[in-house]
Amino acid sequence: MLNGLRRLLRSSEGAVIGLAILVGLLAGLATLLQSGTAHLIQRILYGLDVERLSAEMSVSPWSLLALPLGGLVLTLFGRFARKKGGAPIDVVEANALHGGAIPMRDSLFVSAQTLISNGAGASVGLEAAYAQMGGGMASVLGQWLRLRRNDLRVMVGAGAGAAVGAAFGAPLTGAFYAFEIVIGAYTPAALAPVAAASLAAALVIRASSASVYLIALPSAHAIKTVDYFLFGALGMFCALIGVALIQAVTLIELRVRRSPLPDRWRPIVGGLLLIPIAWLSPQALSAGHGALHLDLTMRVTLTFLVTIFFLKMLASAISLGFGFRGGLFFASLFLGSLAGQIYAGLINLVVGAPQVDATDAALVGMAAMAVSVVGGPMTMSMLVLESTHDFALTAVVITAALLATTLVRETFGFSFSTWRLHTRGETIRSARDVGWVKTVTAGKLMRQGTPTVAETMTVGEFRRRFPLGSMSCVIVTGSDDRYQGIVDTAAAYGPNVAEDDKISHLLTQTEACLKPEDDIAVAMKKFDASEADDLAVVDKERRVLGLVSEKYVRRRYTEEVEKAHRELFGE
Fold it and tell me: CA–CA separation, 154 vs 138, rounded Å?
C-alpha cells in the first residue's frame, strides 16, 4: 500500500495537492499548539491581565527576572539537546542547499528554543518556530514518502507558508511567504499545493476560533498621486533602518562571541540587559503584537513613538545577539508601524507639506520594514491587503515594498535569514535551489587515468611518446610524483623548441589546480581566473587524481541548470 501511494504521488498532481492539504492541516495545528504554549508560559511568568505581554501598561520588577531565568533555561536546554555536527537546518537553508531535507530533531530543537525565548519575554517572534515546524513536518513526511527533490522542496515551502498564514489568519500571505521566502520562485508546479496548504491551515485556525495576528484596519482616506512619492520615500527610509537592524544584531553577536563571556552565560546576561528596557516599557518585550494594536488604535505622542521605536530596536538586537532564539518577522512589522507613524508625524510638522495619515503610513511602514528585514515584497503587500481589503492602499504598499527591496539588494543584498547563513560561511541569497551545485564536484567531473610525465623528460622523448594531435595536454609531475604543471602538446612542437630541452621549460598552470571537493561553481571560477583549457585535480599532497576540461565543466553546468529549471516548472 505504501509503495502504491509513493507511485501515485510521483505520477499524480492531484495526489500531491492532497498531501499538501494534509501538510497544511498539520501546520495549522502545530501553530495553534506553539502559540498556546508560549502564551501560557508568559501568563505563568508575568501574571498577565491582557492577552499579549507587550500590551501590558507595566510589569512587576520581580516578574522581569523571568528574562534571565529564560536565558538560563535556554542555556541548559541547549547543553542537553545540543545538535552534533553544526547548527540546526532551517527551512530556507534546507530548500537552498539540502533539497528540502530537514531532520525532525532540528525542527523540534529550533521550536523549543524559540518557545523558551518568546515565553520568557525576549524581544523575538514565534514565526521562526511556526515556519520551522510546518516545513519540518512536511519534510519528514515527504522523505518518508520518497518525494522527488523538487516536490519535497515545494512541500517544505507549503508547510512553512501554511504555518505563517495560519498565524496571521491570512492564506494569501502564507502562500506568498512560501513562494518568496522558502521556495525562492513562483512556479506553476508549486501554485496549487502551496495554495491548498495555506487554505487548509487558515481553516484550522478559523475552526478553533483562536485569535490571529492580523490587524483589521480600514484605510483612512483615498490615495492620491502624491501619496506614491511620500510613501515611496517611507519605503526607502524603512530599508535603511532594516539594514541597520540586521547589522546591529550581527555586530552584537560577533562582539559577544569574541568577548571572554562563556557561551553558556550569553542568554542569561542578555536577559539581565533586557530588564531595564522592559522596565521602561513592556512594549519592547516579546514579538510586539499587543503593542502594535495599542499604538495603532490609541493616540500617542511622537516622543512616545520614538522612544518605543529605539527601545524595541535595542531589545531585538540584544535578544538575538545574546543567544535568544526567534525571528524578526513580527518585530519588523511592529518597528515598521512605529517608523510609519513617526514619519507621518514629522511630515505633518512641516508647514505647507501634504498631510500624511498616520494609519496609512503605519501600514506602509509595516510592509516596507518587513520586506527589508525578512524579504518577500508580495508577501507583505498581501498582508496589508488582507488586513485592509483596500486595493488602492495595497498598490501604494507594493510601490514602497519594491523600492525597499531594491535598495536593500543594492546596498546590502541579504535578508535576515540569508545573512545569518552568510555569517556562517554560506553564500546563498535566497531559498533558490543551489544544493545541486555542491554535489557536482571536480572529483566527479574529472577524467581519470590521464597520462603523466616526469619533469626531467626531454622534448624529444615527449614528442616520440605523444605525437601531435594525440593529446591536447599532458600533466607533469616531479620526482616525488607531485603535481608540477601542465604542458600543451602543441607547445612541444614549436619551431623554437629544441629536442634536448627539458619539458619543464614549457610548464603552464603550475599553481592553478582543483581539489576533488571543489564544486562546479568553484571550478568555473578557477578556469576563469587561470584562463586555462584544462586543470589537474590533485589531493592534499598535490598528487594527481585526474584532469578536467573547461568545455566539459561548462557543458555539465548548463545541463544541470536546465535540469533544475525543468524540475522547478514541473516538466
Answer: 9
Q: Are 109 and 74 in contact, with CB atoms under 8 Å apart?
A: no
Residue that the C-alpha cell 491582557 belongs to:
50
Residues 6+ apart with CB under 8 A from 465: 453
Query: Which residues neighbour 290 within 8 Å (Cβ) at sequence distance 6 or greater?
Result: 50, 51, 52, 53, 54, 55, 56
Residue with grid cell 523538487, as numbered in its chain:
150
Bridge partners, residue 549, by sequence: 534
Name the residue with higher pLDDT: 469 or 49. 469
Bridge partners of 502?
458
Cβ pair 183, 570 in contact under 8 A: no
User: So what's the pLDDT on residue 72?
Assistant: 92
Give the mean pLDDT of 9-28: 91
Which three-class secondary structure state does DSSP give residue 194? Answer: helix
Backbone phi, psi, residue 259, to 5°: -80, 165
Q: Tally Cβ neighbours within 10 Å of residue 208.
A: 14
Q: In terms of DSSP H, where are the helices of 98-224? A: 104-119, 127-144, 149-168, 171-177, 188-208
Contact assessment for residue 322 and residue 266, using Cβ atoms and an 8 Å cutoff: yes
Whether the predicted pLDDT of 537 surpasses 90: yes
Band of the pLDDT at 288, cuts 50, 70, 90?
confident
pLDDT at residue number 424: 65
Count the Cβ atoms, other than its own, within 10 Å of residue 559.
Answer: 11
Strand, helix or coil at 401?
helix
Which H helix or E strand runs over 483?
Answer: strand 483-488
Question: Averaged over 203-229, what is the pLDDT?
Answer: 76
* C-alpha closest to that of 14 among 193, 172, 138: 193
Q: State the pairing for strand pair 452-454/473-477.
A: parallel
Say what the pTM is. Answer: 0.85
Name which of 6-20, 73-87, 102-116, 460-474 the model is least confident about: 73-87
Q: Which amino acid is at 68?
A: P
More confident residue, 264 or 345: 345
Let me know the angle formed at the C-alpha of 368 by 367 and 373, rounded to the nearest 5 degrees: 100
> What is the grid cell recorded at 363?
501600514
Band (295; pLDDT cuts 50, 70, 90): confident
Q: Rounded to an integer, what distance in angstroms lies between the CA atom of residue 364 and that of residue 390?
A: 12
Measured distance CA(286)–CA(113) in Å, rounded: 14
Domains and CATH numbers, the chain: 2-212 (1.10.3080.10), 225-423 (1.10.3080.10), 436-567 (3.10.580.10)
CA 246/CA 250 separation, integer angstroms = 6
Q: Answer yes or no: is pLDDT of 116 > 80.
A: yes
